[in-house]
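haha ok so turns out i had the wrong file open the whole time. this is the CORRECT one, sorry everyone. sequence first:
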Amino acid sequence: MIGVLWTFAAMCAVGQNRQANLLDGVDFEQRLNEKIPLDATFFDERGERVALKELFDDKPVILSLGYFECPNICQYTRQGLLESVKGIDYTAGEDFDIVYVSIDPGETPTTAKAYYDDIVRSYGRDGSEDGWHFLTTPNEETIRRVADSVGFQYVYDKLSAQYAHPSGIVVATPDGKISRYLFGIQYDAIDLRLSLVDASNSKVGSLADVILLRCYHYDAVQGKYNLAIWKIIRVAGTITVLALGGMMWFWFRREQTERPIS
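then structure:
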């Protein structure tokens, strides 16, 4: 009996060591302001060959890496992103694009199409079909090149026939520069909204969004926006100065208008 327990304990220890060694190769290293290789080519959900540069035009892009038939966190990452983009006023295809890249070279456009159809149907906004892109390629070198460019480090576990990988999304500028990272499987709507405004250089969003962005500070370590009191004071001070200046100008003009002509 004792021998059996020792054997079981040894097996658990081996399993834990293997898991620890596996996770040593998993990380999401931030590479802000670096460029995504837009010449990398994939197959989209329709089976058509497409270069990333064709998906980057005048809008910011949300980039998500994982694999479609992942039995673990990928389904929650997709759902978390879907709920987040449904929670903001901006619309995929109109204000931003979303690009999913499969890290599994064994996945095909047929697999991607099924997930594309499900996401677009769940998103439910008319005219957004061209804002979602689900990409696959049998070329592992291409996948690694894109993943490495954004610091997405993953490993394949032969024993479980699964990929161990981090979770999170990258928000990129229209020209493919890495602007923001949001980590985890759920993304706060304000964080996503501000990330898109940031990545678009304030071309996306209203004046209120631009002012709101000035009141927040992006924490690169946590991948979140935090309310910055000193920024609020600065914005409030600017608004106060402009308001006082406007009042002084109004009263000056009024005085000039009402002054009798001698």
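DSSP finds seven helices and 13 strands in the chain.
again sry for the mixup
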